[in-house]
Design a protein that fits this description.
Largest sheet: 5 strands, mixed
Strand order of the largest sheet: 1-3-2-4-5
Structural class: alpha/beta
Low-confidence stretches: none
CATH architecture: 3-Layer(aba) Sandwich
Number of domains: 1
Protein name: Thioredoxin
Shape: globular
Radius of gyration: 12 Å
CATH class: Alpha Beta
InterPro entries: Thioredoxin-like_sf, Thioredoxin_domain
Domain Thioredoxin: 4-85
Mean pLDDT: 96
Oligomer: single chain
Helix content: 25-40%
Pfam families: Thioredoxin
Strand content: 25-35%
Order of helices and strands: EHEHEHEEH
Distance between the termini: 19 Å
Length: 100
């Protein structure tokens, strides 16, 4: 999964296609588990735009999207937020959420 900058995230939103942005902090154990699940989903959905970022470096995105904790998955489609996930329940749950 590629590390995205704010500019890359904004470009993904503006494309209008479905895009997922995984937010984490490096010392978060739950974030590490969620990342492994997201990497599986990324392999299952190769057409989906998926990026990740350390929330410490994307303060504006965190503020604008009212991020309350990490891990967090933001899903946008058509330029609008369609989901904000804090509980990464399982790979099948994430797959169903993100498939077209």
């Amino acid at each position: 999964m590629e590390e995205w900058s704010t500019e890359q995230w904004n470009a993904a939103i503006q494309s209008g296609e479905k895009a997922a942005f995984y937010l984490y902090t490096p010392m978060c154990g739950t974030c590490a588990v969620a990342l492994k699940m997201m990497m599986v989903v990324e392999q299952l959905l190769p057409q989906l735009q998926v990026g990740k970022a350390n929330i410490n470096f994307i303060e504006r995105i965190a503020y604008d999207n009212k991020i309350e904790s990490v891990p967090c998955l933001l899903v946008y489609e058509g330029g609008e937020m369609t989901a904000k996930v804090y509980a990464f329940q399982s790979v099948p749950y994430l797959y169903e959420l993100l498939k077209n």
